[in-house]
Amino acid sequence: MKAIVSLNSGSSSIKFALFTLDHEHVPTLSAGGKIERIGLSPCLAIRDAHGTVLHEEDWTDRADMTHADLLEWLFDWALSHLEGREVIAIGHRAVHGGTGFARPCRIDDTVLAALEKLCPLAPLHQPHNLAAIRAIARIAPDLTQVACFDTAFHHDRPAVATRFAIPRALHDQGIRRYGFHGLSYEYIARRLAELDPELAAGKVIAAHLGNGASLCAMADGKSVDTTMGFTALDGLVMGTRCGAIDPGVILHLETQLGMASEEVEHLLYKESGLLGVSGLSSDMRTLSASERPEAEEAVDLFAWRAAREAGGLTASMGGIDGIVFTAGIGENHAGVRSRICKRLEWLGIELDEAANTANAAVISAVGSRAKVMVIPTDEERMIALHTLSVLSGTAP
Ligand code: ADP
């Protein structure tokens, strides 16, 4: 039997999934997992499709193990557990496809060089994606590798949604709004079309609320606007990222407080968001269980900003027929969904609180003007589907 591997290589983690293909090439998850704490003391858990742990590993005090070392380990583990399956390709999440990559593609030296040039646009993410591609090319030079872009789903948005109000020459150099979380949104668009085709054909806000968080306005399943912009720092309040901020703050930090740009970068990416406002944690569960007023303030700000941005995206679409919540907070945190939807009551949105508390698939009340749903995302499956489409020559 044939199989596809999805890899999502980030700064301190690598997520992976092995999909077995049936005779019609429909992928079924066989195993998946995550290596975390890379650069500190890496640890790994691999589970089967039912969540049963197949293997756990703890590399205590092995801060020296690189992404490449860990991928090599994973490759060896996979080879001895394939049980007759043949891996025909590896699909990678590539955060940035710039303006050039509007669809997934087979990776060769030319593509790799083009992706390398995009590293300055996503310095905290893209180099890790490319390191994984190179590591696999060394370990298995003949294996087909496919790049699947987080920016691609947003590629065809109306031009107005891509522009900052800065001189044209800078836009032409690539300083523009790209949008991210595209693999998640594309998966949600497809799944919604299966679950509720009528809603999928309408105006929907998808809310990917995890450690990273963004909203996407989708009309007829296509992105028309999104809250992330040039980088994954823009838009909503996130676990440790600030979201949209007056650029004057950054100028002030540098010119008046004398902070170096690396310090500002660290502040905005790693010390801000829920963590910065609460002074307690970046984790929504910890914050909502806390009695501290700062924790409450952080959760309230998260919901307020999400609702405010949802209002903006509704204007971008000229209306709203539904909201779909996804990712860690969106799929599991009834309290946050309720706070956001309460602030959107003026749009005719009303929750069925019992359904919301039960994390049901449909959580809006019967009379709600817009439908509200919860759909678990699956970026790894989207990567596998894209990889298959490239192999079969049917990439969109
Ligand atoms: P990442 O962007 O790292 O993939 P996730 O999508 O896993 O992040 O989301 C992490 C966030 O989801 C955390 O704030 C966490 O508190 C929240 N979360 C995860 N599971 C639950 C749950 N069962 N109930 C409430 N919140 C949850």
TrEMBL record:
InterPro entries: Ac/propionate_kinase, Aliphatic_acid_kin_short-chain, Aliphatic_acid_kinase_CS, ATPase_NBD. Its main location: cytoplasm. Pfam families: Acetate_kinase (PF00871). The keyword Magnesium applies. Pathway: Metabolic intermediate biosynthesis; acetyl-CoA biosynthesis; acetyl-CoA from acetate: step 1/2. Coiled coil: none annotated. It comes from the Bacteria. The active site is at 150 (proton donor/acceptor). Mg(2+). Can also accept Mn(2+). Its EC number is 2.7.2.1. Keywords: ATP-binding, Cytoplasm, Kinase, Magnesium, Metal-binding, Nucleotide-binding, Transferase. The keyword Oxidoreductase does not apply. The record marks 181, 241 as: Transition state stabilizer. Its cofactor is Mg(2+); Mn(2+). Belongs to the acetokinase family. Catalyzes the formation of acetyl phosphate from acetate and ATP. Can also catalyze the reverse reaction. Homodimer. PANTHER family: ACETATE KINASE. This is Acetate kinase. It comes from Novosphingobium mangrovi. The lineage of its organism: Bacteria, Pseudomonadati, Pseudomonadota, Alphaproteobacteria, Sphingomonadales. The gene is ackA.
